[in-house]
């Protein structure tokens, strides 16, 4: 596990740490608890978010890079709208706002697992070219 995780550790760990932070939010009460949980989620997002744009920029050929980043941003921004619908549906179907938090935590954990198993590191330091 450590070798595989080491190759794309910031993205996978970022998703999992962010998911844990979101998972912690409905489990406690008070501003101290929510501040702690939000800080955990924020640390996870800080590990993850900048790497997503950087990965797109690194993988795209220079003459196509701007278009690749635009396409990535389109799908990412579309996810905000679709995600909001998913959160509302989770809360409505579950009958409680807590279900929206569980939905996000599950989505982050699942995304991390998908990246862990099928993500491919392209940086030559971690994946040397023979």
TrEMBL record:
Keywords: Cell membrane, Membrane, Transmembrane, Transmembrane helix, Transport. It is found in: Cell membrane. The chain crosses the membrane at residues 12-28, 34-57, 78-94, 100-118. Residues 1-130 form the Major facilitator superfamily (MFS) profile domain. Its main location: membrane. It is a multi-pass membrane protein. This is Major facilitator superfamily (MFS) profile domain-containing protein. It comes from Paraburkholderia terrae.
